[in-house]
Design a protein that fits this description.
The chain is built from 17 helices and 13 strands. By secondary structure, it is an alpha+beta fold. The strands form 5 sheets. It has a 5-stranded mixed beta sheet with strand order 8-7-6-9-10. Strands 1-4 form a two-stranded antiparallel ribbon. A hairpin with a 5-residue loop joins strand 2 and strand 3.
Length: about 425
């Protein structure tokens, strides 16, 4: 509800159309952020919607397709099932996952069907195969949820038998029998797709930093736990440089007092009493253990982890600079930058989450359900069970959850 109300209040600008919708419980929701659909004065492109890097539009039955294709993709090869329009014959083939195989196949389809539109159904919304085939304007890509296709297969095959050519044929049948339930994938602008990749990859680096931090903390607790108390902020250049120069207490206590003081001064520690306290703590500390069986392996592990940590911190700085430069060029960035608690990290992520083609969400409830922040209600007889939504884009849900947490210190109503 906090997320719902914040978006409703903060984003009621003339460039954003808000409307009434229904939540997952079937009850009306007040003034939601709905689709963030652009008004005629908005800078957003008037194209179709996106899941991750691409837009999604509903499949229209009045579009004439020259052929229909189902693809079961894999890491090294792809099974293809093709059926020309007005024909019951189905053709099967296997394509190696190499550009020199995919390009002749696509060009062959262009020549065979004289450039007519070809509908392609598969379990992909992004990836190298999507990027390779989106360059062909006559191929209309229809992604299908893998869970949906798996249950579709189980409906007609109770033995749970499975094969790649059969899965390609099932994707084709899904396209032919339920075209109104599928939506075509259309790419967003290159800048938006770049931003979406950058913010997601940056979040992966943050997860790497947390993982390295936990391993480093555990290693230091074995033989050098004092350093964890001396430095409250672990993700700093000061902490990395200290451990690089003095990976153990024995190394630190061998250093002269003047050298230790010069080290902290060179790293912009300007308070003399803080420097004096740290230096005295280093010189008077008691070793945790003298066992070489503990000191030697943990010292080596600390040195390795510090180098990894330093590399991750440098990578985050480069990503932050690239994201800030790119996000500032997008017209709607000030709108998201003004959200309470968004800041330079979450504002680009929120912009990437909504994308440019916001008409893909017919209501606020649709966005909540797709992002996984709305619960799921199951009713059967006298039982009613409300639970966490399992099937959703993890990074998208993570974006909204983290922003909701960051908004609490900046908004009174968010903390209530």
């Amino acid at each position: 509800m906090r997320l719902h109300t914040m978006l409703a209040n903060r984003l009621s600008s003339p460039r954003v159309r808000l409307g009434c919708s229904t939540n997952t419980q079937g009850l009306p929701s007040p003034a939601p952020y709905t689709a963030f659909a652009a008004s005629p004065n908005s800078h957003v492109q008037a194209s179709h919607a996106s899941t991750s890097g691409g837009s999604i539009m509903k499949a229209t039955t009045d579009v004439h397709y020259a052929a229909f294709v189902g693809i079961d993709w894999a890491d090294r090869k792809h099974d293809v099932c093709l059926q020309p329009a007005g024909c019951d014959t189905r053709e099967f083939r296997v394509l190696a996952h190499r550009p020199e195989r995919l390009q002749p196949w696509a060009e062959g389809l262009r020549q065979r069907f004289q450039g007519g539109l070809i509908a392609v159904c598969w379990e992909l919304t992004k990836g190298p195969l999507v990027s390779a085939l989106q360059r062909y304007e006559f191929l209309v890509l229809f992604p299908v949820n893998p869970t949906m296709l798996a249950k579709y297969r189980a409906t007609f095959c109770v033995s749970h038998a499975k094969d790649d050519p059969t899965d390609a044929e099932l994707a084709l049948e899904r396209l032919l029998t339920h075209p109104d339930k599928l939506r075509a994938l259309q790419p967003q602008s290159a800048a938006m797709r770049t931003l979406q990749q950058l913010v997601e990859q940056r979040r992966g680096l943050v997860a790497d930093k947390v993982r390295i931090t936990n391993r480093l903390t555990n290693a230091l607790k074995q033989d050098f736990p004092q350093v964890l108390a001396w430095f409250k902020d672990k993700d700093t250049q000061l902490f990395c440089d200290f451990l690089t120069r003095w990976p153990t207490l024995k190394h630190a206590q061998r250093a002269r007092k003047t050298r230790l003081m010069a080290f902290f001064q060179d790293h912009n520690v300007r308070y003399p009493h803080v420097i004096e306290q740290r230096v005295q703590a280093i010189l008077t500390a008691t070793p945790w253990t003298a066992d070489h069986g503990v000191l030697v392996p943990n010292r080596l592990l600390v040195e390795v982890l510090v180098e990894q940590w330093r590399a991750v911190l440098h990578a985050l700085e480069r990503f932050d600079a690239e994201i800030a430069q790119l996000a500032s060029t997008l017209p709607d960035y000030p709108l998201f930058r003004a959200l309470p608690g968004a800041g330079p990290t979450l504002a680009p992520r929120l912009l990437a989450a909504f994308g440019e083609q916001r008409e893909r969400y017919g209501s606020a409830a649709e966005l909540q359900q797709y992002a996984g922040i709305a619960p799921v209600t199951e009713r059967s007889g006298n039982k009613c069970w409300v639970h966490w939504r399992l099937q959703c884009p993890t990074f998208l849900r993570q974006t909204f959850v983290e922003w909701a947490a960051q908004s609490i210190p900046h908004c009174y109503w968010a903390a209530v």
